[in-house]
Sequence to fold (324 residues):
Amino acid sequence: MLHISIKAEPIFRIFGFNITNSLLSSVTVLIIFILLSYFFASSMSKKKTKITLLILFILESMYSLFSSILKEKTRIFYPLLMTFFLFVLLSNWFGLIPGVGSITIREPVVAAEHVAENPVYVPLLRGSTADLNTTIAIALISVILIQYYGIKFVGLKGYLSKFVNFANPIGFFVGILELISEFSKIISFAFRLFGNIFAGEVLLVVIAFLIPILASFPFLLLEIFVGFIQALVFSMLTAIFINVAIIKHH
Amino acid sequence: MEEAGKLLGTALAIGLGAIGPGIGIGIIGGKALEALGRNPEAESVVRTNMILGIAFAEAVAIYALVISLIIKFT
Fold:
């Protein structure tokens, strides 16, 4: 029967901490990311290869996309936004590589008696954005940085006056709504990314279960597109919210 | 009996939750095509904003999907 688990399964433990399969693939993506950027930085000074030019093209087109939102402040926020974009993109696409999710290992069960009769098998790797923990972590980083840049650019007093306003009753009520919307940003960031990627994995599993041969190929292409769009949406929304936060209001 | 209720809840959550976003995405796509018809030079701007708007509308359907998956698998 289908193996669908909404939470990431632990595959081994270090000092009592459960190392889940999504954490393992997250670390793998991080290593790929670091190697790629090291390769890119070192090849910039030498003769440029085709891959270098391709990465350069992606970086430049994303820069022009962000500068349509952030205007002249793009230089300050570009490293942050591009890190979000590339990490989410690589994580989404890493979950689609054949073998991720289909290679399983035996689950390390703490209670020894129930190992012998029916061992449980869990996937060795799982797309890291298909785990709610990862997406909540990225969403928290994003929302906390939005508050940080808001305070840095507008000033603590100016920024807090957006939320606490005793001038008139309507302003007070709007301040409460603004405060709630800051918290709902975390939830909507986290659940949008998690929901899209997890739903994609479930879709691929179900299609492969119904028709084993070739039928999942168009859905795989769709998932590559969805992964790109979600990475784009995550970084674009962060850019828009930062832009809203750093504008002085009256 | 409990299993039947769970299945019914799953189907109702995603089925009802997909109505609103469906209407929304339809309106967004239609309006974007209308805007393109009026002003074909603005294609890239319209496309970017359309995809952003669709992602917002789709997020609501995804919330419903997450709820139904939680009902189903927990």
Summary: The beta strands of chain A are 10-14, 17-20, 104-106, 121-123.
